[in-house]
Amino acid sequence: MNLTYAYIFLAVAIALEVLSTSFLKDTYGFTRLYPSLIVIIALCICLFLMSHAMQFIPVGIVYATWAGLGIVAITIVAVIKYKQIPNIPTIIGLSLIVIGVTIVHLMNDIDVK
């Protein structure tokens, strides 16, 4: 595996985290089988892929990217799926998260192996 694959794994992990989180409300406290299975399986695969990405990308960068982009993506899902429209302070906060993730990536010291 190389750095390119690590970023692909990270991107898939983020997608699976968003999938998992978007079904979390539908589990009704893990009392519904199929949404619960989607959440559990997607999270397990997500964490597996993140662990492999961390072999090439520093832990802080992986986690900042995963969390930051996951927050923004799940907010978009909440707008579409649950009609939960964010207010102006929320949009400003999400913008700052995106700016922070961008800074983390631009200022990192990843050694390409």
Describe the structure.
This protein is 76% helix and 0% strand. It has one domain. The protein has helices at residues 3-24, 33-53, 59-82, 88-106. It is mostly helical and 113 residues long. It is built from four helices and no strands. The chain is flat and about 45 Å long.
Oligomer: single chain
Number of domains: 1
Rounded to the nearest angstrom, the radius of gyration is 15 Å
Give the % helix: over 70%
CA distance, first residue to last residue:
9 Å
| Biggest sheet character | none
Structural class per helix/strand content? mainly alpha
Overall body shape: flat
Stretches where pLDDT falls below 50 for ≥5 residues? none
User: How many helical stretches?
Assistant: 4
According to DSSP, the number of beta strands is 0
* SSE series: HHHH
Q: Output mean pLDDT.
A: 92
Strand content: under 5%
Brief write-up:
The protein is mainly alpha-helical. Helix content is 76%, strand content 0%.
Question: Helices and strands in order, then pairings?
Answer:
Blueprint: H1 3-24, H2 33-53, H3 59-82, H4 88-106
Notable traits:
mainly alpha; 76% helix; flat
